[in-house]
Amino acid sequence: MGEWDLKSMKIEELEEYLERLGEKRFRAGQLYGWFHRKQIRDFREMGNIPNALKEKLLAEQTWVSLKEAERYVSGLDGTEKYLFELGDGHVIESVLMRYRHGNSVCISSQVGCRMGCRFCASTIGGLARNLAPSEMLDQVYMIQRQTGERVSNVVVMGTGEPFDNYDNVIRFLELLTDGHGIHISQRNVTVSTCGLVPEIRRFADRQTAVGLAISLHAPTDEKRRTLMPVANRYSIAEILSACRYYIGKTNRRVTFEYSLVAGVNDGEEDAAALARLLKGMLCHVNLIPVNPVRERSYRRSGEARVRNFKNMLEKSSINVTIRRAMGRDIQAACGQLRKDYADKKKQENDYADLRQD
Ligand code: SAH
């Protein structure tokens, strides 16, 4: 079988695939339309496809469709957190945020993560596996279907390191922004990375309008290493050089995410050092008061300190915003996504086993 499942294939690949099966090539466009424009969940929904072909496809290929396992709606801001079950029983999380400018979906790119950032909940259980392009797409499709509201923005900022799953994420982006599919504008999509330098450069070479966000979180390598193990692999200088390369290729500004941790990276000297690093660069800094994670002892910076940090950057003419935390009452905020559901299920099963004994 091909490398991809049906919903991860481009039209040309579907054409070739159908031809190999002895089917007509024009069926590819029909299938693609059902998968990506109409976003069907079930093969039976494809009215103009003969049953014999449906059966043949299902026998030959995997059909990816996520199952909604749980959904939480924030009482604070209408943010919704979705737990989706994958074909193999793994569970992933996605978040829908409603903004004035439209609906934004934050998707996961892996089951778990192996980057090990100290303040992040998604990495606690390590990496289970990569997500297929179709499994990333389906997070957006399911949420659009469930709400009946158009999704206009997508951020790859949920669980996982997108550039640790590079090929699948690139394919996902191609299908997501394709004019024959759900057609989300490249400009409305952002990929966030902890700073994998070779992949940032490869991404830049593609010269698309998809946005790039870098999780920086510290102004010196020494401090960054205490928060992010990946800082042992790539220096800030290498990351910034790759960012300049991206800007040169795309003419788009880079977003730097900076989670403020009380007493760790939120001092005036940190702000001054950060301002020196970024001065003159086509960029934007997004300050995120760190979200407390049950298993971690980090505390968020106080409001005054956050403001002060912001003011210092602004004085150096750096574009900066403070990220509004959405869905805090449903553990949907940045860095809080984790496999509680899987733990709960496992516990239930363990209890069931006990009862059987
Ligand atoms: N792996 C990618 C994308 C996922 S994380 C990356 O590192 O960019 C999305 C953002 O949330 C990153 O900037 C990450 O550092 C940040 N984050 C993780 N845990 C957090 C927490 N507890 N509080 C605030 N931000 C957090």
What does this structure look like?
- It is built from eleven helices and twelve strands.
- By secondary structure, the protein is of the alpha/beta class.
- The chain folds into three domains: 6-60, DNA polymerase, domain 1 (Orthogonal Bundle); 65-183, Aldolase class I (TIM Barrel); 203-326, TIM Barrel (Alpha-Beta Barrel).
- Helix 4 crosses helix 5 (166-177) and helix 9 (268-278) packs parallel to helix 10 (303-315).
- It starts with 10 loop residues before the first helix and ends with a helix.
- S-adenosyl-L-homocysteine (SAH) binds next to strand 8 and strand 10.
- Rough shape? globular
Please state the CA-atom Rg, rounded to the nearest Å: 21 Å
Q: In CATH, what is the homologous superfamily of the largest domain?
A: Aldolase class I
The H-and-E topology, N to C, reads as HHHEEEEEEHEHEHEHHEHEHEH
Outline the low-pLDDT stretches: 353-357
What name is given to the CATH topology of the largest domain?
TIM Barrel
The order of strands across the largest sheet is 1-2-3-4-7-8-9-10-11-12
CATH class of the largest domain: Alpha Beta
Instruction: Give the oligomeric state of the chains in this entry, treating copies of one chain as homo and distinct chains as hetero.
Output: single chain
Question: Can you give the helix content as a percent range?
Answer: 25-40%
Structural class by SSE content:
alpha/beta
Number of helices: 11
